[in-house]
Write a structure and sequence with these properties.
Layout lengths: L10 H4 L8 E4 L7 H11 L12 E7 L7 H8 L3 E12 L9 H10 L2 E8 L4 E8 L4
Parallel strand pairs: 1-2, 2-3
Antiparallel strand pairs: 3-5, 4-5
Length: 138
């Protein structure tokens, strides 16, 4: 089940990132929230790894818009360098914005990609974020 986080928390606080975390970014384009990216880089103390990097990372930032392709395939691909216990932060345009992705599409794609939706939050004027965590095998 997902729950919306309070908007009074800073966006980066909601992402639970910290100094020294390795974060890889996918789906970068000129429509991303530059201020949010700058805040993430300031918090982790380094630049985001691009989509070509092969380093093992603590978290993935995925900017995703309707029309970008197959969400399930992309979610599978972005996990290739994700460390055990790492999370995928899926950023999608808010309702009413160009490229909006239905929350139902995210709910459908995540389990097929081996992930489950844990929380959603408002992190910028144009983007929402959904935390996707790997399913645990017991």
């Amino acid at each position: 089940m997902s729950e919306a986080k309070a908007p009074d928390e800073s966006a980066v606080d909601q992402l639970n990132l910290k100094d020294g975390d390795y974060v890889q970014e996918f789906g970068y384009d000129d429509d991303v929230d530059a201020q949010l990216r700058d805040q993430i880089e300031a918090t982790i103390g380094s630049e985001l790894f691009d989509d070509e990097a092969q380093e093992v990372v603590d978290a993935v930032i995925l900017w995703w818009r309707e029309g970008d392709g197959d969400l399930v395939d992309e979610l599978v691909d972005v996990q290739a360098t994700l460390d055990e216990g790492g999370v995928v932060w899926l950023l999608t345009p808010k309702s009413g914005r160009d490229g909006h992705v239905s929350p139902a599409d995210v709910q459908d794609a995540a389990p097929t990609a081996g992930l489950h939706v844990t929380t959603t939050a408002r992190v910028s004027p144009d983007w929402s974020v959904t935390r996707l965590a790997p399913k645990r095998n017991f």
